[in-house]
Amino acid sequence: MTKRVALITGASRGIGAAIARALAEDGYSLTLSARHEPELQAFAQTLREQTGTDVHVVAANMAHEDDVRRLATAHAGEFDRLDLLVLNAGVGASGTVAELLMKRFDLVHAVNLRAPYLLVSQSLPLLRKTATSDPQRGAKIVALSSITGVVSEPQLAAYGASKAALISLYETLNLEESGNGVAATAISPGYVDTDMAAWQEEHISRSDMLPASDVAELVVAVSRLSSRAVVPNIVLSRRGDQLWRA
Ligand SMILES: NC(=O)c1ccc[n+]([C@@H]2O[C@H](COP(=O)([O-])OP(=O)(O)OC[C@H]3O[C@@H](n4cnc5c(N)ncnc54)[C@H](OP(=O)(O)O)[C@@H]3O)[C@@H](O)[C@H]2O)c1
């Protein structure tokens, strides 16, 4: 049987690392990307030792267009196959509309929206080719949005707007590409217990945040769907009396 292959951005820790581990355990070969190569290499080596899977590492900054293009090219050169593209790298920003600096707004939109858009467009030829070779399963894209992309939160206007735009982007992509066997799913969780959510620990205990492994379970489930199914967006809420709050 042909070995399935995934490319994961923001894969060195947090949600991306949990997804990488789950996919490695499910038998995927992987390209892992993040900015800092030593952490990425150390994690890749752990995965190789623990799961026996083939892991390729590409250090790249998703705020830089050249790096995004280089990542797509490096993955294709290594594997010539892409069953699952996981657009997970993202940065947060908290601040009111009155106060947030435009420099921060631009970085958030460069990493959270522009880079996924470009990486998808650069990866589509390989995704389509892989979908053609596996018509039952097709090829998938999964993108980490956020519940703040579905329902607004104070202080998170720039971040929420970038995540809402991602949901729209993948809805359109489904209209354009699902007929070619390439389907996209946004996953929109509330607070997940990672470094990114640490600033909220004063208000929400880590044990009340979602475990990253729950997001990884959803990615694996989506990856197993047939090419006939399209799941545009999955909202993952935290337990308690605030269903539509991060
Ligand atoms: N944690 C939450 O509460 C939560 C909730 C909803 C949605 N999300 C979304 O889930 C995704 C993952 O979040 P997380 O909580 O796992 O974040 P995290 O713990 O901060 O990890 C972020 C990952 O992305 C990489 N990264 C950061 N900036 C990058 C850049 N400019 N270029 C390339 N890689 C970059 C980091 O590695 P390097 O630092 O080495 O680059 C790291 O591997 C994000 O898109 C986030 O918006 C998170």
Describe the structure.
The chain has a single domain, classed as Rossmann fold (3-Layer(aba) Sandwich). The protein contains six helices and seven strands, in the order E-H-E-H-E-H-E-H-E-H-E-H-E. It has helices at 14-25, 37-51, 65-79, 102-133, 157-177, 212-223; strands at residues 5-9, 29-34, 55-59, 84-87, 139-144, 182-189, 233-236. It has a seven-stranded parallel sheet with strand order 3-2-1-4-5-6-7, sandwiched between helices. The protein is globular and about 50 Å long. 43% of the residues are buried. The mean pLDDT is 97. The structure holds NADP nicotinamide-adenine-dinucleotide phosphate. NADP nicotinamide-adenine-dinucleotide phosphate (NAP) binds at residues 9-16, 34-36, 39, 61-63, 88-91, 111, 144, 146, 189, 191-192, 194-197.
What is the compact description of this entry?
The chain has 246 residues and is of the alpha/beta class.
CATH topology: Rossmann fold
Bound small molecules, which ones? NADP nicotinamide-adenine-dinucleotide phosphate
> How many domains, in number, for the residues?
1
Largest sheet: 7 strands, parallel
CATH superfamily: NAD(P)-binding Rossmann-like Domain
Average pLDDT for all residues? 97
Class of secondary structure makeup: alpha/beta
Tell me the total number of β-strands: 7
Q: Helix and strand string, N-terminal first?
A: EHEHEHEHEHEHE
Read across the widest sheet, the strand sequence of neighbours is 3-2-1-4-5-6-7
- CATH hierarchy, class: Alpha Beta
Described by the principal axes of the CA atoms, the overall outline is globular
Give the radius of gyration: 17 Å
**Termini separation:** 41 Å
CATH architecture: 3-Layer(aba) Sandwich
Which ranges are low-confidence, i.e. pLDDT below 50, for 5 or more consecutive residues? none
Counted by DSSP, the helix tally is 6
Query: What fraction, in percent, of the residue positions are helical?
Result: 40-55%
